[in-house]
Amino acid sequence: MHAAAYSLSAGCAAEVTTGPGLEHLELVLYFSKRLCAWDIMYVRGPAASIAAAAVVIAAAYSALLRRRPAPSRLALGSWGVVGSIATIEHTPTAREFWTVDVDAWRPLLLRGAAADMPAAREWDRDTLVSRYGNSTVRTERAKEDRVAGSQRGGMPLTELLRRGAAGEDVYAISNVAHPMTEDLTLPPFLLCGSDRSTPERLAAPSDGPRQTVGWATPLDEFGLWIANLPTASQARRHSPEPRRTTVHYDQTNILNCLLRGEKRWLFLDTRQREVQQMPWAMGNLRGVDGGRPVFDGSDFVGIDPAAVDLEAHPQLWSVTMREATQGAGGGATQRAGDCIFVPWGYAHQVSSASSELSVAVSFLWERDVAYDPAACARAPTAMPLPLPLLLPLWWYSGAGVVPLGYNTLSQTRQRLLSAVEQTARRRRLLDAALFARWWRAKHERGGDLLTARRGASSWIVTPF
């Protein structure tokens, strides 16, 4: 047996220290924790039994991986897919969408929900160039790498389409420029939402310079995604790489509507223990409470989804996933005209290898927005609403580049409240300290309040 030292934590092997020749360190640690968690072997004192079993299992597991006909680096979704997310072939009512799907916190594929958008019928290369070619879009490289940092920038839409057609692996992930909203509509089932965190403002119209109506769901932003693969003849020369995201979750609800192309979606329930244990880069995922994940912000897993190293990350074998839908031959796709609802905090990964132009738009709103029957009684839910009539929180003119990752309204509100509370707390401390100095000046040295203020002036301007 290889030499190793094992320490105990609450009677369970928790740490492995290498000795001469010890191999498969991460696997040994992983399986030792698994044995403890499964209560297969539970000992107090030296963890010899667990150590021996973990080393043997790790060695056998590693040997099995080496003997696999396929490489140990596998594409995400080639194992662990247990089924499909819910799919509906009809357009739901607003009440159905909000009370059945949003409140249930479940991903949903809505077939044909965006098929009637003018953009779904009209947006091709020529149309985008002629109508909106001067609008600036935020761009990234085709394969998202949040750990290394994707190369980001901005360029006119015309330039993006030209570079993509020439074979560059660049795509747009940006806010929708306001002129482009003329070809977009809001699905009627997305109306009728109100912010339940501020009940006094439910269904209340805004009084800003661009007034909105009370029945319009408060949306954070309109997202735009454009990828432009080479034409068929150019593709034969360039062999472009499929575009894919990392595994990640967002802190807002998202309705993603595909206008052109095809996408493959994988969903990982962040309430799942194995998903919680994935190597989240920011460490924002903190557990589960009340049947929902608890986190401090959006997060991602810094693993290449096209080549997951299952020897380095054996715990990923236990992760289960669901696809957008199970198609013929095992392919799961979102087709042009389909929308997918992604609940806040629900982990997912998206790939697109469709030929030529792919375009999608997204509608983002916060978790505190809920169905409001009073607003719905006045909302025009019988037909899609032209998007220029709506005012998102982060509005974009199309000039310059708007970076993603702005704070949500609830985050901004919470930070302001925290700042006010902190300021008030400091003021109370300041008043208490000043009173103490005045009291000592008056009763110990016979001074007065003015003397105390002068004596404390240097201290008062010192920040806490």
From TrEMBL:
Domain Cupin-like span(s) in chain numbering: 102-368
Stated name of the protein: Cupin-like domain-containing protein
Cellular-component GO terms for this entry: nucleus
Cofactor(s) the record lists: Fe(2+)
Gene3D superfamilies (alphabetical): Cupin
Organism: Emiliania huxleyi (strain CCMP1516)
Assigned keywords, A-Z: Iron, Membrane, Metal-binding, Nucleus, Oxidoreductase, Transmembrane, Transmembrane helix
Lineage per the UniProt record: Eukaryota, Haptista, Haptophyta, Prymnesiophyceae, Isochrysidales
Transmembrane domains' residue ranges: 42-64
Subcellular locations according to the entry: Nucleus
Pfam families registered for this protein in UniProt: Cupin_8 (PF13621)
InterPro entries named among the record's database cross-references: Cupin_8
Record-level Gene Ontology MF annotations: metal ion binding; oxidoreductase activity
